[in-house]
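User: Could you walk me through two proteins back to back? I'd like the raw sequence and the structure tokens for each, with a short line separating them so I can tell where one ends and the next begins.

Assistant: Of course. Protein one, sequence then structure:
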Amino acid sequence: MHADALRILLKGIAVVAALTHVAFLSLFHWAGVDALALVNVGSVLCYVWTFWLAHQGRIGLCWAVTALEVVAHAILAVCVIGLASGFHFYILLVIPVAVITNFRSLAIKVMLVSILTMVYLGMDMLLLRRPPMVALPTTVIDGLHYFNVLGTVLILIFLAAYYHYLITKAEANLRAMATTDPLTQLINRRAVIEAIREEEHRVQRANTQMSFVLCDLDHFKLVNDTYGHDAGDEVLKAVSRVLSDGVREVDHLARWGGEEFLLVLPGAGTQEAELVAERLRQRIEALRVKVGHQELHISMTFGVSARHPGETSENSISRADQALYEGKHAGRNRVVLGSLAPTTALQG
């Protein structure tokens, strides 16, 4: 488990455990078991300490103190008032926490789980038929038993739900890493191809248009060769921000590869896509990227194509690519419309 997630988990356990032991303190004081009441005072102070340790990021010590308190408290409670009180159930809660804790050594984790399991089974076997040191009224013992059963179940549900949340979050982070360009924070080629497939279905159902704008930085190799790749990275990030600010929320903007970007415009025809491309071209032309004591002037060339009925998106993007190629040879820093000739296919 990630250290931040474990810290949050341990802080939550400390708060819940402290409040629970306040309730136990009152109960044992009312029942006349002052020794256990004093033990619960110590437990409350212990969990205040563990909360502080978790807040300070001292995860190892916090986990160790929490585990020791749970085990020691459980052993003492069942020895004094009997196994029927159900305090030994809390030892079971330490086991899943030990399993998901990010110990560096697997052997330590296996040893801890084995020790906890043996302690639980040993208590059950030794104390199952042994009379308690202090005999409490049956109603009190029954109340403690079911309170501890319910408390154990609720905490197990909390641990399972929290672990599920961590897994879901980790999956989302991994998916974001797999579909996001790390430099520009735009979606990557793989992600935009998936988005195009989804948009194709919508276009076919609604019988609407979809256009593509393929754009490429002019003389980008010269920027890298003259100012270095760090300067080139700054140019790419600045351009990606300008492009992102100039499109709608329903549009898809991706880093297509190198210094090339692809814009997918659902619901837009050739005229609308050309207007969008021209507006973006002007914004890029006005952009100044500061590199050291110099400001770089940037420009881009844009190829535009609209997806025609019966045509695949692959062919439409290919026409935009051909238009981009023509714009480069015509002098760069311009918007060129694609012809109707379909060519190659999309690659993932």
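----
Protein two, same layout:
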Amino acid sequence: MIQPFTADPIRFVAEDGQPVLPLPERYTPALLRELHHLMLQGREFDRKLITLLRQGRTSFYSQASGMEATQIGLAKAIRARHDWVWGYYRDQVLGLGLGVPMFTLISQCLGSNTDECRGRQMPHHFSARDYNFVSASSSIASQVPPAAGSAMAQKYLGTDEITVVTFGDGATSEGDWHAGMNMAGAMGAPCLFVCENNQWAISTHIRHQTASENIHVKARAYGMPGFYVDGNDVVAVMEVCHHAAEWVRAGNGPALVECLTYRVGSHSNADADAEKSYRTRDEVNEWLGRDPIQRVENLLEHLGDPISAEERAGMIAAIHKQIDEDVLRAEAAGYPDWRIMFEDVYSDLPDHLRQQEAMLREEQGGQA
């Protein structure tokens, strides 16, 4: 049923909730409700973090609203805490789907003492050591070559792990993307490349990024299958990504999945007036009508297990409460001081850094 290089995105569920392909048996109302809750959690996480940004409690954030089905579907298609994930800076919902606690993500955004990166990484560039969730980078596509290297190591070591690397459509215009794709293809590395095609690379539409009809066809050049999926259909994303991940895990080499979706918010807080500067309100409204969360609710109603307005409101209130508690706990832990500049890099600090540390200590009033 799942074939590479389809002309249209693979879809299991229409926007009105009607199945267009037979639903696999595992998609019970219970599983769909779990997926729905994770997607709703991601949506509300966005809303609350934007509030923190406006309050000056963090300094950078990139919304994933509208892309929840792509990220949760992928998270539930792979083996969390077993496979390695090289994400990009819009993958907070992917992290939540893998089980990364909201507290971990919030701590990173705030740069508090509870941040695994100890405040060194740019806000909203998540990582989680216990979940094999590698720290994101702002440099577009820079995660792709090392992800290919990670997959090559897995092949040489003979593990049954795979590497999953995600990126936006704009990343496919970068040389790093092509280098990583080529190396993985040439070496038969167990790497799953996932393009979260939200159609806008900041202010540049995909039609100005490439002359190819879409992204997944580029897989042909690197000797791997390319799959095309409706990224707002969580069932389709989960099925296609699981199929591709297990194909990769079986030793067949890498694969590329393109998830066609849309970011309804801005690229980041740096372009908050996106509708005024580079896209139209009509376009955004059209995609708001394709809301992936609403699609799951429509499907549950079709299956006879609807989510009422009261139930939905209760879930949102509970999510907000948890986020508020996590924010206060992270802030209460305080923030790293100047000493961390000299830690965690060298086992034996070089003399010139010892001198700089002593100089700073003296400037700080002789603090130990």
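The CA atoms of residues 13 and 19 lie 4 Å apart.

Let me know if you want the two compared in more detail.
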